[in-house]
Amino acid sequence: MISARFRRKKVAVAGSICLGAALLAGVAVQNYEVSKKLSKLRADNEKTREQITQMFESLKQLSNLPLAYAETPEGLELVSAEYGLTKDDLDFMKRFRGPLLDLTTDFEKLSPIQVKELLRTRLLAEFEGDPRNLSLAETKRRALITFAMLRVNGSMPTYEVRNSVPNDFRNMLLGTSGNCSDFTLRMMMVAEVLGLKAILISANTPALPGHVFADVYDPEEDTAYMLDANFNVRITRKHTEGKGFFETLMAGGADEQDSFSGAAKITALPVYFRFVDPGEKGLYGTPLTASYINKIRSKREDTWRRWTSEDLDDLVDWWKRTPTHRPRTLAEMRTFLTAIPAEFNASSDDAERLRRAVHVELIESDRMTQATAK
């Protein structure tokens, strides 16, 4: 009896031991699984912390980097300030965008005189229609001239890399892309429409290694301007006694040029260049890109101040060495661009005086064109 009871007790104890062992094994397995999950959670948390740290570092860098908007083929994108515009500047630029004339107008049926009158009427109506335009300069007349420069820039918002200006009057006035020559010719046309005199200035000097802009004179206020419609830069010179900007500046000598450069009011208004596809020209040389020309905008004032004090001798030397780049009016440009209507001929005396002041002359073929225009 005792032996049987002992055996049953022994079996029970063994069963209890086995059950306990099984329970312990189960707990161990559970602990292992929990441990694995905890390890994974710790690894995930560590990865998340690293990502958050990297995000904070990126945000810290961005907080020290002013951002701006760039217009791309895909829409607006945030970029560093040197490559884009602030929202306020972009809104300012958009005020002046659009064609100078209604593109639905049957342009070919209008005479050049009709085109000039239509353009003048349109520009004056646009200027008068927005009171904000009066704040562009100190007087209403200067504000109108500044507005005209901004409208020329806004009418050609895309910079195009090319080697020449299309010899087509409609495109000269209404094309939507171009280089500094296109901007300048259009600026000169608009200037003459508004009763101003305009001379094309071609420069290839240390501060401006290849650029074209306009010397503009307003007889109504006896004020001369350097207008760069490509980069929206205006330099004003008051009371020039009937002389253009560069004629006055050249006549003053080096000391006067330095003095003027230091005190000159150089107005660099917001400007922005959209995406540009150089096409086949990108295969040759190094074409300008939208990123490059947007980046150099911040240097505009320094560049022009240095240019007006240091580069004028180089400018005259450039004119002497390359006769086809000497100062010219629209009428005189008809040697190369026959599509410029003969009605744009208001500035020949001014260009001739400037050339005499720096001792350069038109080549014979240009003189023949000038005589025909008169």
Q: How would you characterize the overall build of this protein?
A:
There is one protein chain. The protein has helices spanning 2-63, 87-94, 112-129, 140-154, 169-174, 180-193, 245-251, 253-263, 290-295, 300-310, 312-321, 330-333, 348-357, 364-373; strands at 67-72, 75-80, 158-159, 177-178, 197-204, 209-218, 223-228, 233-238, 266-268. With 374 residues, the protein is an alpha+beta fold. It has one domain (86-373). The strands form 3 sheets. A 5-stranded antiparallel β-sheet has the order 5-6-7-8-9, with helices on both faces. A two-stranded antiparallel ribbon has the order 1-2. The chain has a two-stranded parallel ribbon with strand order 3-4. Helix 5 (169-174) links the parallel strand 3 and strand 4. Helix 4 packs antiparallel against helix 6 and helix 8 (253-263) packs antiparallel against helix 10.
What's this entry about, in short?
With 374 residues, this protein is an alpha+beta fold. It is 51% helix and 13% strand.
Helical fraction? 40-55%
CA-to-CA gap between the ends? Answer: 146 Å
The residue ranges in which pLDDT falls below 50 over 5 or more consecutive positions are none
Q: Order of SSEs, N→C? A: HEEHHHEHEHEEEEHHEHHHHHH
Number of domains: 1
Most strands sheet? 5 strands, antiparallel
**Spatial ordering of strands, largest sheet:** 5-6-7-8-9
Structure class = alpha+beta
- Radius of gyration in whole Å, from Cα? 36 Å
Q: In percent, how much strand structure appears in the residues? A: 5-15%
- Overall body shape: elongated
Look at the structure and give the mean pLDDT. 84
Tally of individual helices: 14
- Total number of strands: 9
